[in-house]
Amino acid sequence: MPDFALFIQTFAPYRGPMLRAALLMFIAMSLVPIGDSAGKLLGTEHGVNPFFIAWSRFGLGTLMVLTFLPRRHLDPRLFLDWRIWLRGLLISCGISSILTALQTEPLPNVFGAFFIGPILSYFLSAWLLKERITRLQTMLLLLGFGGVLLVVKPGFGMTAGIGFAALAGVFYGCFLTTNRWLADAVPPRALLFSHLVLGTVFLTLPGAAHIPTFTTAITGLTVISAFASMAGNGLLIVAYRMAPASTMAPFVYFQLFAATLLGWAIFNDLPDALTVCGLVVVVLSGIGSSVLKR
């Protein structure tokens, strides 16, 4: 009985909205690697250009969201806010960069390098949004950044693909911060709809220039890529509306587990020893930061 009471006391801060936000993050962070696995299959197995994959992901995602989005969220005045356009540009560049990286690099390696994003989001949220952080949390996330460097290997063994993955992480970290910046001003579904529409707009020219010859496999993978990405990012927006970005950032590290599992199951890709060390450091720093936040 005392052990049960201790368990309840330990996780008490995660009851209510915080618990719901954490659960949504776990689901979202599983869906995102699924979408990227489908994108990697399109590029590596079927020769589909990453710009088309990104463009189709945004375009199909827009059509999917329209099926359940209330009309009040379709207000065109939403696009008068420059922050909406900045956010749309950030996610467009981030998706294009990570899909480019996946053409040549294993899934867990790409996600390891990509995880510079949550670390950047943590510091940007503290700087720009004035969210509270602690010295120990900062030290742990700096340790996580060291783990990212072990994955990226700057200066020795770094490839162009890993460089694109790190660049995607930079765009994504800025995107995560804008989610929180706009959370109180724009409903979550409207936020999702806006970046899907703008992603479609930004990527129309390069995407339309690389339309593939459709087969059953290409069509199915394109739909899976779009749906998983749309659903994952939609849940992410909802979670960030329920809790501060600096609190949610550590949960994003669950993507590493999902990406490693999918990379092994689908592509038979396992990271090398140095990359494994980096992934472990990244995960432990994220978990440690999460425990401190509680």
Features:
mainly alpha; globular; 294 residues; single chain
What does this structure look like?
- Helix 4 runs antiparallel to helix 8 (160-182) and helix 6 (116-128) packs antiparallel against helix 7 (135-152).
- This protein is mainly alpha-helical.
- The protein has one domain (20-293).
- The chain has 13 helices and no strands.
- The protein has helices at 2-11, 17-46, 50-66, 82-102, 107-114, 116-128, 135-152, 160-182, 188-208, 216-242, 245-248, 254-267, 273-293.
- Residues 1-14 have low confidence and may be disordered.
- The radius of gyration is 19 Å and the shape is globular.
Q: What is the residue-mean pLDDT, rounded to a whole number?
A: 83
Question: How many strands?
Answer: 0
Q: Which sequence of SSEs, written as H and E, runs from N to C?
A: HHHHHHHHHHHHH
Structural category: mainly alpha
Report the principal-axis shape: globular
Biggest pleated sheet = none
Low-confidence stretches: 1-14
Spatial separation of the terminal alpha carbons: 22 Å
Computed over alpha carbons, the radius of gyration is: 19 Å
Strand content: under 5%
How many domains? Answer: 1
Helix count, per DSSP? 13
Query: Considering DSSP H and I runs of 4 or more, what fraction of the residues is helical?
Result: over 70%
